[in-house]
Design brief:
Distance between the termini: 91 Å
Helix content: 25-40%
Largest sheet: 4 strands, mixed
Order of helices and strands: HEEHEEHHEEH
Strand order of the largest sheet: 3-4-5-6
Structural class: alpha+beta
Number of helices: 5
Oligomer: single chain
């Protein structure tokens, strides 16, 4: 014969289970009414310490295959290496915007920029930048030219640039633009000046 205490305990447990079921159902309905917020995949960089300065970014435009010099006001630290990194992060921020003229993969970021004397800059990008970069001769070459020209135009003395991905050399960016060699800045600048119409930009 079932004791009275056991019956009471069973009844209390049943009531608790039913109460939890009602609570979970209510929470699910509440959550369903909350609009989904789009995830911001842009890299989260620490605040930059330094005065705001006027710089020139060379922004790629896919619609007409050009690079356009665009002024920007960004905070810059005093060190040359850190300045180069923030210049490229400002450029990538434009490309990661929803109205980007030159779309790059979500999560793209600059890991570091190494300035090696005499006049060599090594740009180290993360794997998110390269692994899902759009494939195509012009779109890849616009990316490479944009990075190199932005650094060389704002950091005096840079004459050659090398691009790495996660600290490693890759043959190409996404199948076309070579990443095996150092890019000569003077040759790149001459070619950039002709980018009013689509043209090849190589090392």
């Amino acid at each position: 014969m079932i004791s009275r205490q056991l019956l009471i305990a069973s009844a209390v447990l049943l009531i608790a289970v039913l109460g939890m079921s009602v609570y979970v159902w209510h929470m699910r309905r509440t959550a369903a009414r909350i609009p989904a917020v789009a995830k911001d995949t842009r890299p989260l960089a620490p605040p930059v310490a330094g005065p705001t300065e006027q710089v020139t970014l060379f922004v790629a435009y896919d619609d007409d295959g050009t690079l356009r010099a665009e002024g920007a006001q960004i905070p810059l630290p005093s060190g040359r290496q850190q300045r180069a990194e923030e210049l490229l992060r400002a450029l990538l921020t434009i490309y990661l915007d929803k109205n980007s003229p030159h779309v790059i993969p979500p999560g793209s970021d600059v890991r570091s920029v190494y300035l090696v004397d005499p006049g060599v800059a090594v740009i180290d990008l993360n794997s998110a930048f390269a692994d899902a970069h759009r494939s195509g001769v012009l779109v890849e070459e616009l990316t490479v030219a944009s990075l190199i020209h932005t650094v060389s135009a704002n950091i005096p003395g840079v004459v050659k640039v090398k691009i790495l991905v996660d600290g490693q050399q890759r043959d190409t960016l996404a199948g076309h633009a070579s990443l095996t060699n150092f890019y000569d800045v003077s040759a790149m600048n001459a070619l950039v000046a002709t980018l009013g119409t689509p043209s090849s930009v190589g090392p």
